[in-house]
Amino acid sequence: MDLVSLLAVLDSAVRLSIPLLCACLAGLWSERSGVVDIGLEGKMLVAAFAAGAAAHASGSAIAGLFAGLAASVAFALVHGFSAISQRGNQIVSGVAINMLAAGLTAIVGNAWYHQGGRTPPVDGAARFGEITLPGAEALSGIPLLGPLYREVVSGHSLLVYLAILAVIATWWTLARTRFGLRLRAVGENPAAVDTAGISVAGLRYAAVVLAGLLCGLGGTYLALAQAAGFLPHMTAGKGFIALAALIFAKWRAWPALGACLLFGLLDAVAIRIEGVPLPVIGRVPVQAIQALPYLMTVVLLAGFIGRAVPPRASGIPYVKER
Amino acid sequence: MSAAVEPPAIELVDIDKRFGPVRANDRVNLSVARGTVHGIVGENGAGKSTLMSILYGFYEADGGEIRVDGTPARIRSPADAIRLGIGMVHQHFMLVDSLSVVENVMLGAEGGALLDRGLARARAELDRLAADHGLAVDVDARVGDLPVGLQQRVEILKALYRGADVLILDEPTAVLTPPEAKALFGLLRTLREAGKTVLLITHKLEEIMAVTDRVSVMRRGQMVATLDTAATSPPELAELMVGRKVLLRVDKRPLAAGEPRLAVENLSVVDERDCLRVAEVSFTVRAGEIVGIAGVAGNGQSELMEAIAGMRRPTLGTIALDGTVLTREAHTPHNLRRLGLLHVPEDRLRTGLVPAFPAYESAALGFTDDPAYGRGLLLERGRMIAHLADRMAAYDVRPPDPLLKTSKFSGGNQQKIVLAREIERAPKVLIVGQPTRGVDIGAIEFIHRRLIALRDAGVAVLLVSVELEEIMSLADRILVMCGGRITGERRPEATDERDLGLLMAGVEGRA
């Protein structure tokens, strides 16, 4: 493979990993606070729909982003209410969110636009365009690093850089702030937080809302940066792969970035070698290639990452004991 | 202000607290002077922990008043208590294992939105506390990696870091080894010298004698006495704790014990936290006798029962049924049932029944392979229901409805369902834990008569109960456990509650 196509693969790996990364960080916040969230998929989907619809209506990508964030946070609050206030089963609530999102976006999309559930295609200011970082051209003369910077680091939409910033912010907030300390504590032993005079529910709601915002970012990216409008089921299981990435990353921010980039790379390679005959194996069927990331998830989860211990209180509603 | 008129550090006036029908605190009064170590003793369920939880704002009292330094205070949350200078070391530590010591200490008192300044201050303060009180601990260690004694030290540091003047310790020695406990008492004395007030909750009388200035005794939700420690003695406290009540004697035939059925030899159990729960316990139970194990809850009885019933692996020692020592493979609940050792577990809702099942399903648990219940792989609902209906009539279970959900029955009727299920199988050895806990008076009498009938029919019965009265009226021999050991054996006619109370408190009196 020559340098140009290598860079192209890396570039597409970054693009493909962003929705995973957003969902993975969302799961990280939620689970570190003790709320299991398998509704990442559903939240991204409603965000993608809301972003597509709002961008079409307003012609503004930023309006689309805000609509996506709002829709996702609204769904997150439903999950929060059932999981935190009502102490419901978090898996059931998450599944309900996913089903609701899949059904609702398809029905409303069809009712509004009559295009088989998709929102009308948008372009121009209604999409997030690519941003060329300063110096991309000037530095491209430097061997290897120059083209790498120009092709892989530069030239993405605003949302990509926001997602990368979210990794830094997540790491910094968890490690260095009061909120982060309390959040880490509440996912491990909520009773300790309660006896320290801090509201367990308050912390968990905050985490759930953050998860909503991150899923909103991921969904908006799908609809307005990667594609040009909402397509039914466009999340295609990314919310679930993100959960696998979260376990790889052992619920930490920087490893989450690594895991998502790895999955993105697998996806990119799969697309690249589709239909291309490989040495020894010959032509690999498309389906086998597409199954690769999932296969790797299963294999890695089955024991190649060492013990991945989730936050101890994750999934358990907090009830004061008698 | 002179010392004579200094208001008490803590004053509780007419505190009332109900949990459903249970009156956990019944107009409790307590006054604790500043700069003293004040003990609160009582049996499990006497209301000590509830009272302290009210003082720490975990629950709000239904009635009564709390005064801190003479000023009425409303404590509605732990945050309120912390603000008033009250700190608590819980029996189950309120620590986050994955965080470091310093992070645990500052949690909730971080001193700003960013951690770095707070961290520096917490480190300095921990150094000072370590120097002042001899409370040294590695501030960067992960709490989960520390031994239990040090974890408790972190809990105390947490309270002191928040400026606690009044420190509540709930059963602090329950998880400690004796040397750790000794170190803790030394620490409590230095804290008292530094002017702190300590409330020590325990059911161990020797601890009260060793470290407190005054002691209050609780029994069944009431405060029955407050005494100067120097002017009292373990026997007096034991008597106050247990109380005197009319014994409910059951008529029974004279003992006609036969062959040894169950023989426990040098049994020791170490639990998941590496605590020694049962220490070198040996005894036998013969056919036709009831052996009662008395003791304050939490002194190893549960672990002993679980070990015998095959629910927990003994660490050392052997258990023999009918003279045959059980091998590791043979020692499973299922196999024991086959061999005639049946078990009525002490916590019927957790291990005896499935609350969400209809009664007829709960009544078949453990015996679903009985041909009476069905053919081959299938269970026949009709037969199961008919079977339970018969037993419900025989045991007077009310309402006699096999289809009713298990959790809808009262405690006494649930217990009858479990008893009927186990007794039905013609046991050779029956292990019964807390048979009348949460059971109404009428059912108690019925259950007692059933147990006596089994004994008279030649069953070897091991009865574990925290109700002394029950043990004294049913057992032919009484073993008393304290701290995992058997501290004494008595015949019911040759002992009284005072004597047993002393053994339960670990005071080995006359032989």
Task: Explain what the structure shows.
The complex is a heterodimer of chains A (322) and B (511). By secondary structure, chain A is mainly alpha-helical. Helices cover 68% and strands 2% of the residues of chain A. Chain A has twelve helices and four strands. Chain B is of the alpha/beta class and 511 residues long. Chain B folds into three domains: 3-242, Rossmann fold, CATH 3.40.50; 249-340 and 427-511, 3-Layer(aba) Sandwich (Rossmann fold); 358-425, no CATH class. Chain B is 33% helix and 24% strand. Chain B contains 17 helices and 20 strands. Chain B is elongated. The model of chain B has no long low-confidence stretch (mean pLDDT 87). Classes of the chains: A mainly alpha (322), B alpha/beta (511). The A-B interface holds A 176-182, 184-185, 188-189, 191-198, 312, 320, 322 and B 19, 56, 58, 77-82, 88, 90, 92, 94-99, 103-104, 106-110, 112-116, 118, 158.
Silhouette of chain A: globular
Q: Approximately what portion of the residues of chain B adopt beta-strand conformation?
A: 15-25%
Count of all domains of chain B:
3
Strand order of the largest sheet of chain B: 6-7-8-3-9-10
Low-pLDDT windows of residues of chain B: none
| β-strand number of chain A | 4
What is the spatial order of strands in the main beta sheet of chain A? 1-2
- Structural class call of chain B reads alpha/beta
Name of the CATH first level of the largest domain in chain B: Alpha Beta
